[in-house]
Amino acid sequence: MAADSLNRLAAEVVTCRRCPRLVEWREEAASKPPARFAGQAYWARPLPGWGDPAARVLLVGLAPAAHGGNRTGRLFTGDRSGDFLFASLHRTGFVNQPTSTAVSDGLAARDLFVSAVVRCAPPANKPLPEERSSCLPFLVREVELLPDLRVIVALGGYAWDGVLRALAAPCPIASPRAVFGHLAEASAGRYSLVGSYHPSQQNTFTRRLTPAMLDAVMLRARRLAGLG
Over the stretch 28-38, which tens digit does the pLDDT of each residue have? Predict the structure, then answer.
């Protein structure tokens, strides 16, 4: 079953120590938390994807946040980007609640799986090319293990590029020069790729990305996936 295979992959992801720089950084962030998280136990390990094994839509980000997913143990949970994202996912019918602060908070996804190109929090949110290459096989395998997957949403240009790289081997890209943009689209075999600006504070505070803009991406993903 897809759920069992994804669980086995997740167990492999969380024990990964392939990238010394990322291992050092994720553990250093956990040992020196900001005052607002003082005393909290950090996850401080790589993060697997999570969500509905029957998902038709895959959402891909860059990497965990040092004091978000690296703290809570779930991608986008417990950081400002996630606050913005989960509100949109709730409005567009992909999750059961508009906020997520901890793995135990009751959040559940429907028709959606959430992942990232890189699984450890990188310094300055900038993974090295070799770190991306080491992590990318995890994304490739997640795609392969989602039997109903039809649409991939890339949050930001880094995720867009990472997804295209992940799909290049099993699925020749129909648009090899596909350029990232908000609501940009490309196709790769049976998958449709949709781009969105990343819900970082840099984008949301400046209103480069608004709630309506992110909702438009997720609603487009629903339609492409045949979810209405």
Answer: 999 999 999 99
Q: What is the DSSP string of 18-50?
A: --HHHHHHHHHHHHS--GGGTTPPP--S----E
E-only strand ranges, the chain: 50-51, 57-61, 112-116, 151-155, 185-188, 191-196
Instruction: Kindly tell me if the per-residue pLDDT of 175 is higher than 80.
Output: no
Tokens 């997520």, located at residue: 100
Query: CA quadruple 58, 59, 63, 64: dihedral positive or negative?
Result: negative
Please say if the pLDDT value at position 215 is more than 80: yes
Question: Is residue 191 within 8 Å of 224, Cβ to Cβ?
Answer: no
Q: Are 208 and 182 in contact (CB under 8 A)?
A: no
E strand spans, 21-171: 50-51, 57-61, 112-116, 151-155
Of 162, 187, 163, the C-alpha closest to 174 is 187
Amino acid at 149: L
CATH number for the domain running over 2-224: 3.40.470.10
Alpha carbon distance 42, 73 (integer Å): 8
Q: What pLDDT was estimated at residue 189?
A: 82
CA 120 to chain centre: 12
